[in-house]
Amino acid sequence: MSSATRVTKVRRLVWRPAELVRTVAETATAHTLTFRVPGWPGHLPGQHVDVRLTAEDGYTAQRSYSLAAPADGDLVELTVENVPDGEVSPYLTEVMEPGDQIEVRGPVGGWFVWRSASETPVVLVGGGSGIVPLMAMIRARRQAGNPVPFRLIYSLRDQDRRYYAGELRRPDPGLDVTYLYTRTAPPGAARPPGRIALGDLAEAGFEPGRPDCYVCGPTSFVETAADLLLALGHPPQRIRTERFGPTGG
Asked: 78-95: per-residue pLDDT in tens?
């Protein structure tokens, strides 16, 4: 083999048993679930996993969920929104008890990730449950003791739908959080309800060209937010997006 030849070994993703350790309610319809996954290879904040349920008759249902926390040994943390009439999310959020098992496969994804050694400021733009992988990045920054400034712009319908509300209220030097409410704003809110706009990103973000930008949420939200960042002058190569659509839960 010549010195110019490179061989890239692709790690094969396998299904692993995952045992539920604990469940914490985030909102009336969303829960954070912590699983123990023996042999878990670790992951980067921003990656996701596939989850598979298998019924007694052999029928399987599979969905993808973002990882909500940085790597911690064999523990995997997911935040799941209960989708009415869904096949997977109602079981995860309403039926599973500690000790029950499912299967997970991952981690998946290598572009929409943040590395804890980065010295570049970061703008995080999340719509609804799109906050989940962004929260993994926030927690990884805190865990690493990285002082790089983070600015989170979190768009959601109303304050009752806020994920990680208590954690995001705690002081975290270098992290600025801005809430944008689209339907109902809480009393005293400086901004009236409405969809994300150019002024929101200009006011809460950094000057164009300085930060890395991560945008996650429903497809229409991601497309709008990414277009606004481009309109502000952020280079396209500095804007990373992750979108999701209806999956049936």
From this structure: 999 999 889 999 999 999
